[in-house]
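Example 3.2
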Amino acid sequence: MSSEAPSDDTEIAAAQIENARIEDEMEQSYIDYAMSVIAGRALPDVRDGLKPVHRRILYAMHEAGVTSNSSHRKSSSIVGETMGDYHPHGDSAIYDTLARMAQDFSMRYPLVDGQGNFGSVDGDPPAAMRYTEARMAPIAEELMADIEMDTVDFQSNYDDRLTEPEVLPSAFPNLLVNGSSGIAVGMSTNIPPHNLGEVIDATVELIESEDPTVEDLMEHVEGPDFPTGANIVGRNAVHKAYKTGRGRLRVRAEFEVLPEEDRIVITELPFQQNKARMVERIAEDVNEGAIEGIRDLRDESDRDGIRVVIELKRDAMPEVVKNQLLESHLERTFGVINLALVDGSPQVLDLKETLSHYLEHRREVVRRRSQYELEEKQDRAHILEGRLKALESADEVVDLIQDSEDRDAARAALQEEFDFSEEQAAHIVRMQLGSLTSMEAQEIESEYEDVTARIERLQEILADVDELDAVIKKELLEIKEEYADERRTSFIEDTGSVTHEDLIPEEECVVVMSEDDYIKRMTLDAFSAQKRGGKGIIGTDLKEDDRVNSVFVANTHDYLLAFTNQGQIYQLKAYQIPEMSRTARGKSAVNILDLDDGEEIQAVVNTDDMADDELLTMVTRDGYIKRTAVDEFENIRSTGIRAIRLEDGDELVDVEVTDGDYDLVIGTRNGMSIRFEEDEVRPMGRTARGVRGIDLQGGDRVAGLAAIDEDQHNWVLTVTENGYGKRSDLDEYRVQSRNGKGLIDIKTGSRNGEVVGLETVTYDDHLVAMSAGGQIMRTRVEEISKVSRNTMGVIVMDIEGDDEVSCIDIIPSDLSESDDGDGDGDEE
């Protein structure tokens, strides 16, 4: 079977194929794309402060004659012309930009004069472009001024039909005045707006001074001046931003606390904050208990300005509510990134560099404008010289023109006879006889004097940089006189803001948490001490099938470490837990702690009780125990960190703070206990499992851990789920080696039920016991009989029906002394 030889065309095509590595091609293509986004879409030019889309919209309006002196035109028309002639990237992007340039809450000095609905601070979108109308704002025309005088370079538009300016002449430093924001590939810019008068004063300082520093310029530019006003907290971040081009400013709403009227009134918001969303989030926090003390919230804003009124409860502390609002709603961070295109390349600029680049641009604009005007004036002076020369020999000129056959002959004769240039001769031939009057001659002479004087001035400007700068300075000050206004954004000192904690009343509280992760705190004085054997009072309102699983006593100013059954540890401030009444259910703990499904708080340790050389001693349900140094828990994330490694099916049960000299007592659900010296358990890291603390028998489980200091403690107190308990002398619990079977602590069985917990106690301590059904009882420890080990104990809390004691805690004697109540134990 024969095959044909390849054709010449095939060989030529094959020879034109080039091999390329795909990674090289992808890299180059991505670089090209990135530079296109950086230079062509996302970043402003340092000279006029505009991105291409802004520049093209303004130039399209300029070309269409939609100036500040014209009537408004439909936004759809402006968008259509911009898209068709200069910016083929979709009408929605162009209209969004047009609308933003018309928003007085987005632009410090709006460049577009809009008519109709262009959006609001509530995040409402503008009306459709077919409904709104626009024209250039007067200040925008200052950006376009003298663009016809060859002041800037032009480039072809996207289809080479037209030309568009590469940059606008920009008679004021628009980059700083109106700011800019944008996200490019691998970089972003976020330049805040400034006061026009201050920026111009700084530019004049740059012109007048030989080599001013950033600090010198900051004598004029106080800081950003946002269109929505508000306050900048402190000046250090502003100084850093101006010196380095980067900084983080704290911007705080303007508001007034009116204690006598029980209200807080907000009148100005941080830049770019959505007012409606802020009001909505405040309401959500109030409903969830994250903010307390607010009874009503309403938005009374109108065309005259913002006014959000927050009505306070009568017993609310205005300063506390204020600080809660500041933490989440009334203060925002503005990250300054002063990134702009300089000669087509992105650069982060300080204040001086930004103004210096603008000033160089302005010098180039005025130089080109002066040269353009000079050439025009010189051409005009040349024509006027010819006319004056013709007037001197008017009769001869008229006779020569009359004797000529046509215009061309007359023009040639004038050039030959009177030595006129071609342009002069052509102009004289076109002159009317009426221009030969004496009055006309005087006007020509006067104009010639004005033109020659202007030529001299222009030549002076072009020859002397100081004169050129004087022109720039004069024009800047004229713009300042025309458009500058007062600052809107104020500065307030950062006094190390008063924290929420500083304003929270310091008081003892009881914290209750349920299996379904509802949590709340109640004041301790809401529970008077009762005689043992009482039913207690309602401590919480539970959902159906929910049960109380944790109760502990703390101070509202305590920093707590919360340990969960899954071995995680979280840091918690007691006052972050919402304060509620006894009959309230509580709030979901997910608003405070990032708990997983099935994760429950088992133990809470007060960090105020811990010293750097102390240890956290943990015990698990299966009898493992370990000690870990406190300093291993210094950096606790909001999502918690691992406190102990657990085997499958095991859970963390209890935690105590120890110092190396304690004895430890582990108590089990079946009433066994073992006491051993603390140093039998060596210190371990956070991720260790620990060692055996007790040898559990017959499916027994650990109920709790107690730490004994014989100088501080007198008894071991044990409580069972059916409400029985006892206290026994420490000597009853002889010291053994760890991992033994232990001794009987309390008899369990059908009457007592299993052990709920055990604690070491002393004189005047109070016991807080809480049932799974939500009953809570507080009683003096001395009311509970002191008996030996291996006894049944006495009734502590009267449990009804299927309810049972689920958890206990101890109120130390120094906190319980103030309660002299003598409750009768009846249920409320």
